[in-house]
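Lesson 9: reading folded outputs for more than one chain in a single document. The general rule is that every protein is listed as its sequence immediately followed by its structure tokens, and records are never interleaved. Here is the first one.
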Amino acid sequence: MQPPGRSAALKPRLQYVNQDVIKTKWEVLPEHMQQLVRELFVAVERPVITRDSEEKRRIEAQEALSAVTKTLAKRLPRMPFPTKTKEEHFNYEALMNKNLALEHQMTLTLHSTALLESQIIKEERLLESERAALNRLKRNEKAEAKLRSRQTAKRPDVLQPGIKVAESEDNAASIGLINAPSSKLPPSEYRQMDLDASLQPVVLQLRSHLESLENNASQIEGTNTALLETAAVLESQIVSS
């Protein structure tokens, strides 16, 4: 991967072609395209010659290149080229501009690819972090569920969720001090109830007092009604007088 700070560069590539293909399918260039090839030879000499700052070495390079280009120029009329060869293939400046455009496009593509790869790495790290957090939450949830289960198992029955305990009335009738409406037991049977030995004398004494109060209440039963009737008669007589 090309670093984002550098520009991409096209590299030359050699392609080997079978001699039979060259002999049977390639053709000699027409005269006007041969002239373009000669101009191309001259154009490629300039960068090589001007590269060296020493005059003597520039002269030597020019002489060597001139010898090569002259030899190629002599062979050019008999030199075969691919059938799809075009005039633009021998335009040195146009080829250089096209190469620069391709390198610029490739640089942008490589930079975009590097940014995408960097973003993918960040997203993968974030995903791993979120997965780890999710796994911790799941472990904590299981631990809390086990803790709640152990705490529930240690509770008394009355505190267990979903379990209803029968409610009992906390009054005189429920502990046997007075006769409950649903079960009127004689005093003799109350004495036979399963009471605590220390409480039995107190319960029996209270029972005796309650029975005395009930007898007194029965004796004055109806007195309240008679009083009300008498008050009504007196009120009518006062009004009439």
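And here is the second record, again sequence then tokens.
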Amino acid sequence: MSSKTNYAFDHSANTLASHETRTVQNTSSYLIPYLKPGLRILDVGCGPGTITVSIAKLVRDGHITGLETTSEIVERAKALAEKEEVSNADFTVGDATDLPFPDHTFDLAYTHQVLLHVSKPVDVLREMRRVVKPGGLVCAREAEMEGWIIYPESAQVLQSRAVTSEVIAASGGMQATGRNLHVRAREAGFKNEDIKKGASAWLCTEPDERKSTGHAWARRFTQSEIATKALNRGIKTREQLESYSEAWNQWADHEDGWLAFISGEIVCRKT
């Protein structure tokens, strides 16, 4: 992730707990067919390292490097790799708009739900393209913030998603979302014929997953940077944010709760 990113979700314990449920299998299965033996891979905006480590396990004779903006998160990712006895992953602090690697270093560069938050996503994609070898791949997956479907229908939950988008946009983000990733890739130097476009849905229906997801979102509207920025910028009042939090808690506890959202995906070949 870029050091110039004003990350709306912060790295609080609540956010990290949510992100630590992510693996390549449950968030980026589109990537798995491209994970070949011996690859050298870069994970831009690796967070606590769970996706990075899951990729490392699939390319045991290869290597993956995870990049994040803060040493605290990097150390957390390193601890996870050590705990999982993964030796073919390393982690470093860096800026996605100025990657600390020479040209043509990696076979594949990957990012997940990062471009949404940066003010210059094309710069990030251009840097990812630079550090990939000729013939290599740049892959990205980003949420489509309007592509949420929820049951029981809740106007307040859907309004809370709109508030999240407003906060991200006010911080300079929302320049790249699922629907326009292919356009941003072309602006970064990829040819149309070298961009494979796709989409997938994340589905939350199981009771434990529903409860953890819903209660995590509830806390975001009272105990996170989203709440702080929404208040400080006059986007919403405290009472409105508390009503969103309560709506998420109610959804989390509803036995028929069902949630899906769409993300766009790109796989770009450097020619």
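What the second record shows: The chain has a mean pLDDT of 92.
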